[in-house]
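Note to self: keep these together.
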Amino acid sequence: MKIKLLLLALVPFCLTCACEPKLPEEEDKPGQEEVDPEPEPEPEPEVRHVDPVALSFSDKGMNQLTLNYDETSGVWQISTTGGDPFLYVSALAQDLEEEHRVLSFEYLCGTGVDDFQLFYGKAIAENRSRHFGKIPATGGENWKEFACSIAADRISFDWGKAGENLRMDFGNKKGIAIKLRNLCIREMNETELKAYQDEIAKAQGKDAEAARIGDYLSRTYPCRITKVVAGASEITVSGTTDGGAYYVADIAPWENVTEMKAFPVKKEISGSSFSVTFNRTEARNGIPAYDRVLSRFAVASADGSLCSHARYADEIRAESSPAAVKCKNKKGVGALTSAKLMLSDADDLGLGSVTVNIVLNSIVNTVKSGNYTIEHKYGGVSYYMDSGNVSSLDKVLSECYKRGIVVSVIILNRHSDTNSAATALMKHPENDGGNYSMPNLTAANAVNVYAAVLDFLAKRYSSSTHGRIHHWIMHNEVDAAKEWTNMGDQPELRYMDSYVKSMRICHNIAHKYDPNASVLISLTHSWAKKEMQYASKSLLEDVCKFGTAEGDFLWGVACHPYPQSLFKPEFWIDDTSATYSADSPYCTFKNLEVVNDWILDKSHWYKGSQKRILFLSENGTNSPSYSADDLAKQAAGAAWAWKKVNALEGIDGIQWHNWRDNRAEGGLRIGLRRFSDDTESPSGPKPAWYVWQAAGTPSESSVLDPYLPVLGLSSWSEIFR
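Structure:
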């Protein structure tokens, strides 16, 4: 094909070239000037238009909604009856044309829909879906159009052939009524086409930046920063050069080292080795007292070229140094609150560890208002913390402290629907939906408010007074980025450059108050497979690369080894893609050896000498119903999980999720207790609860061994590879 195109390109030239023989009468006459012919005007490109493809809904496969159709008006009426409403579009009758790039419909909906999601057929899976955000409310009987571009998805998912379908998810709430008409897939209008072309250009720019980050991480530079020490009032930067004239540049979090053409904050150095000091704080980019503990430092030349990797602080002077604490056992639960029954379970289950969710926007505000009354100054700026949420945290963390329970907090950043004025600041500018956002680290004031709330939490919860945060889980399931740590569509290294910055900010702030604190990367069960945006194993390797280039730090792993299908409890049978290979597509309860082996590989250890923390921070098996058979399968899965975790030395703890079945989890029953509104036994303990209670106690065998036949085993040794 390339040869054919090349020949076609040469045809016009060959038809007019000077190598053709001239007839005698065409010979040049002396003194006659050759005149080029007027070029022919290029024809306007032909604009091709395609007719819309009308779609209709199928009455099969609906979930938690009702559907009615009025043939006279062509109007569909949808009413949601639960928290996971979806339905299917009938299969395409013909292949779509390339120009069919927009799904659109007209609608009436007085309340609006909180999130519209499309699943592209072949296989219904999250990694073949996209969230398009809210469907806005309409006023009165004024129909509005909702349109979303599916152009990129058609390419990514190879979707649009005859026989393929769509699943439409209408938010997460029951009681929503919406009328639809003129559902179709159409071509783009001029405005949409221009926006699409702009998005393509942006994507190409992101890819180029990701390539520069990859080159930066792997490059060998002539100079090197060897150590950065953050003292009380100064930061000392030491390193080596090739003897030329250089500067040490201070690079703030909102600056991208691979994109900078000049370094505005720098100090001149000379000689083959150097040591230079910076004031710990300075006024910078509107921040009265910016703390350089957040910065990286690199060697640069006078022309603005980067001549070393940028390095974060290796040592940070700590204001307090609480002793390191290890989990007293490997047993824990997730999302602990101060609820009386949960705290009672902490005792009855004998927990050694828990996770606690912290939504930053519910804690911090930029103005004093309502419950935001606790002043905390950071970077010379006053921020205000919510007294009610802080009081709740005080209670749960102090109760954990009394019991010797290790606490890992999950740091979340909601991008909408909060009362905090800080929310808009902390939302990443490229966020396009999902449940939570990557923090905004692109502007100084956004970095400062993010650092301020982390500083407040780290300082307050570093002693017995209010309880203690031992470890920090940074955001949620970052390999499923669009859903849980949204930064828009990103090439992997550009996404991870932002994520590692977030980790390093938290790490350096936490180490001001607790030198033993680790920051943990949160990952799904997708090990070497990109089930969502990225693969967990690849992201772990990325963090290693950043640490090698920019200085290692105390980070660990918080993985979620759910079964391949969260709904199917018999992972020992169903998880066929969870193998014992280092490149297994999934890492589930079945093959925990995979992540255990990774964490025990000394090439992954902190500075090559200390194993990193590995928590299974969110995981559980489902009981599809409360039948005796389903409850036994769930309990058998819990027994298997405990036996493996307790035997594998690389795993430091498992936090079972959820403590209690939750109606908002799409029909899952993965809790140790029943639904709070269950008619038979509200919040009653399930058989899995008794497995968890017995785990690690003298009664373990008597409670767990009866589940061996459910697993089809004769002894627990058979669960290991």
